[in-house]
Amino acid sequence: MESTHPCNFDSCKYPRHAKGWCRAHYAQSRRNRPMVPARPRSALERFMAKVATDPSTGCWIWTGSRTVHGYGSVSIHGDRMHAHRAAMKLLTEVEIAGFEVDHRCGVRACVNPAHLRRATRSENQQNLPELADTKSGFKNVNWHKPSGLWMVRVKIDGKDRVFGYYRDIDDAVVAAREARRQLHPSRRESVGV
Question: Residue 171's CB: how many other CB atoms inside 10 A?
Fold first, then answer.
């Protein structure tokens, strides 16, 4: 438990944490390093310390803790959030309250603000990978048993919208891609994916 008394280190005003030291000086003493004045780091400095750049893709990969789904997880000012949402909050002036943050690059651990965008739930869902858990194996292409044809169906704002029926699955896949392009023209364009 934190004390109200200051740290034993000269001129340190942070409260004692353990053995008479504040958190920073206690950590220094445990590592057998020379004691230096504690310098508080900003949320941005702590955040960027856990980012590694992938030069081949331009992605900033989160090296800190991750969720079971592969998204970075971070605590900013006591609030636990996904690292990509924290990146938008710390590195841009884009207001994300009430919106989701979409990865244009498709990499869940990426926190590069250039690869992120504010999106509605529907826009974010349309940016999922091409293959899906359907019998066809393609996103938005389903077998329509009554007609014996492949149906192209895209969900937009919680409502299904049918974009046609096709005998050939290849024609249905092309139609599904075009339907998604019409509904969400900004999808993945700026990263070149």
Answer: 15
33's enclosing H/E stretch is none
1 lies in a domain? yes
Which residue, of 76, 93, 119, is where some domain finishes?
119
Residues 53 and 109 in one domain: yes
pLDDT in tens, 89-123: 999 988 899 999 998 888 889 999 999 999 888 77
Give the tens place of pLDDT for each residue, 118-153.
988 877 877 666 555 567 778 888 889 999 999 999
DSSP string, 108-172: TTB--GGGEEEE-HHHHHHTS-S--SSSSSSTTEEEETTTTEEEEEEEETTEEEEEEEESSHHHH
3 state SS for 2-14: CCCCECCCCCCCC
Looking at the structure of the chain, the number of domains it has is 3
Question: Which pTM was predicted?
Answer: 0.56
Q: Examine residue 189 and state whether it is found in any structural domain, yes or no.
A: no
